[in-house]
Amino acid sequence: MRISVVIPAWNEGAIIGSTLEVLSxxxxxxxxxxxxxxxxxxxxxxxxAGARVVTASRGRxxxxxxxxxxxxxxxxxxxxxxxxLPEHGLDRIRTAMADGRVVGGAFRLRLDTDRPLLRGVxxxxxxxxxxxxIVMGDRAIFVRATAFQALGGYRPLPLMEDVDLGHRLHxxxxxxxxxxxxxxxxxxxxARGPLRTIVLMFGILWLWELGVSVKLLARLYPSxxxxxxQRADRGVDRRAAVITFAKAPDEGRVKTRLAAxxxxxxxxxxxxxxxxxxxxxxxxxxxxxxxxxxAFSPADARARTAAWLGxxxxxxxxxxxxxxxxxxxxxDAAFEDGATAACAIGxxxxxxxxxxxxxxxxxxxxxxxxxxxxxxxxxxxxxIALAAPRPELFAGVAWSTERVLDQTLERARRAGLRVRLLxxxxxxxxxEDLAAAGLAEEHSKVAT
Length: 448
What we know:
Layout: E1 3-9, H1 16-24, E2 30-35, H2 42-48, E3 52-55, H3 60-69, E4 75-78, E5 83-84, H4 89-97, E6 102-111, H5 116-130, E7 141-144, H6 145-150, H7 161-172, E8 174-184, H8 187-192, H9 194-209, H10 214-220, E9 240-247, H11 256-262, H12 264-283, E10 290-297, H13 302-309, E11 314-317, H14 323-336, E12 342-345, H15 354-365, E13 371-375, E14 381-386, H16 404-414, E15 419-421, H17 431-436
Parallel strand pairs: 1-2, 1-4, 2-3, 6-8, 9-10, 9-12, 10-11, 13-15
Antiparallel strand pairs: 4-7, 5-8, 6-7, 12-14, 13-14
């Protein structure tokens, strides 16, 4: 029995590689990635992993239908890009579908988190589906291809397309629930808050059962980041935003002042270690309250920057222009998405923890100041936090000089903005800065 796995994707470059890697261990007969117009490395990563890529209009229903249209398997598995099948999952599907009465089914749900509350959420969600005919897409719905075609596939709904398909499949044959669990990303639960998400999902399901319009329900359902980081739409995200500015860790392009002393390879090693520490600090911020963003450069570097910094971030390319223009664009993007406050940080200072970022955002978020700035010992700053766009702070600044902080403070004074200064920390730009950052001794060796 041949099985085709269809994965709808849009800007999933940060996560689709690992999903495909786990899937390949089960030797699927066919993997189809249905891309909704990604502008990152999703397509390249999928093709490199051996998947067939088809393009479709953006939208989960449209993308899954497009993938299924070209599928050659007798059974089609619809796998979300942030979900991993259980070990031997495809074999379990083959066993279940050997019964001719079965038209489809799904697995149980497990979230990739150790938080007890979220584990409980998954258990409650599994109980809900066990006591009803509801089938959810994050359980890896599988269906006999002939039944899927006879039903006309997924209906073009903005929401509930998976539940709708499950109900229709129940009417034409037997649906099975396998005891093994798909492991899904906990991102949306963390972003919205577990309790709020439970109320939201149960409420929407209840209203849908009562016949409320799906278009109306879609307005009630807030937008969310795709697992790979890009937002699925431009909806409101009422979290504070932490924007990490990062260049791809390429030799000759990062830490050039340090490289002049210790060499390009060692400078890149330092940069990678610094960035990994900053990323870990950002991930320590609770996703329910903080949106973690990486503004990456150059524009084609998302995949390799994500491979370095890891999961847990939204990804936006840096704008063109000097650092001031790039800061303005990144802050504008965060506030346009609904951020209550936002701060920018780099990847070359590790003297701060999540509590420093929380404090900076709280100061501007509560109105204690209009701007919070963390000075750096080189005359710049390691963070700047705002509660609203302030482009006047970044225009005409002599970036990468010891005058950056003074010029920024002068611009704030002229604009009548209240400024709160935070702790002064050290950026790692010179050999003598390495010890303060606690970096490995071998990085301090002078290149010869």
